[in-house]
């Protein structure tokens, strides 16, 4: 079912400081820098092989990611695993009793791929995100 690490999402206090750190220490430039106002996020994206590395600075302390940063500090927000036929996978997971976030269990990412998110209450506190595209 899981066929790759689709992306690793980090949350940081200052995206631009992290971009500079990565530039100085690893010689990497982001593939994309953007602000997603409607989600209150300032992102840097890096492609490392098949995996996307997403670094996010929350712009709203009251957003979900802002609250996560306040509670846990900087670090991994979640890891998304690549799957084929995400609608079928979401239906199978729901059939096994998992509650999925979003309408129909599948949501559109602002980056063009689709995701299914298992409610952490059903997965022993871990956030499992599955992604396709």
Description:
With 133 residues, the protein is of the alpha+beta class. The chain folds into two domains: 1-80, Roll (2,3-Dihydroxybiphenyl 1,2-Dioxygenase, domain 1), CATH 3.10.180.10; 83-133, no CATH class. The protein has three helices and eight strands, in the order E-H-E-E-E-H-E-H-E-E-E. It has an eight-stranded mixed sheet with strand order 2-3-4-1-5-8-7-6. Strand 2 and strand 3 (41-48) form a beta hairpin. It is globular. The mean pLDDT is 94.
Brief descriptors of the model:
single chain, 2 domains, 133 residues, 3 helices, alpha+beta, globular, 37% strand, 8 strands
What is the topological layout?
Elements lengths: L3 E8 L3 H12 L5 E5 L4 E8 L2 E8 L5 H9 L2 E8 L3 H10 L11 E2 L5 E5 L9 E5 L1
Parallel strand pairs: 1-4, 5-8
Antiparallel strand pairs: 1-5, 2-3, 3-4, 6-7, 7-8
Q: Which CATH-level-2 architecture of the largest domain?
A: Roll
Largest beta sheet: what is the strand line-up?
2-3-4-1-5-8-7-6
User: If you compute it from the alpha carbons, what radius of gyration comes out, rounded to the nearest whole angstrom?
Assistant: 15 Å
Structurally, the number of domains stands at 2
Number of beta strands: 8
CATH class of the largest domain: Alpha Beta
- The gross shape turns out to be globular
Number of helices: 3
